[in-house]
Structure to design on (112 residues):
């Protein structure tokens, strides 16, 4: 007979990726911009400190935007940030929707 032991992992609640809601918001925006013909490709990167979603106009270029989630951010207002093609931080925020507003404002210019 086997004895089973339950191991309680205290780090189980630790974030390691975008959650379902966050990834849904990013992919909704990405899908819209692809349908407008503005974006063509994306990449996701993961390391022990951050996870990111890179957006490309062409796969051979630098990413237009990098949406980054800091997994171990000490400052609460730096949980999410967005960088442009040059690596300049456009905005930092504790919430993803505030970061995506940077792109949404530019998206509105395309629709008009």
């Amino acid at each position: 007979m086997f004895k089973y032991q339950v191991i309680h992992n205290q780090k189980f609640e630790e974030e390691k990726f975008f959650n379902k809601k966050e990834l849904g918001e990013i992919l909704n925006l990405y899908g819209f911009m692809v349908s407008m013909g503005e974006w063509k490709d994306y990449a996701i990167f993961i390391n022990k400190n951050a996870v990111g979603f890179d957006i490309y106009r062409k796969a051979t270029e630098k990413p237009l935007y990098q949406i980054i989630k800091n997994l171990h951010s000490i400052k609460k207002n730096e949980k999410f940030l967005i960088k442009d093609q040059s690596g300049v931080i456009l905005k930092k925020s504790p919430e993803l929707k505030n970061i995506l507003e940077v792109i949404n404002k530019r998206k509105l210019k395309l629709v008009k």
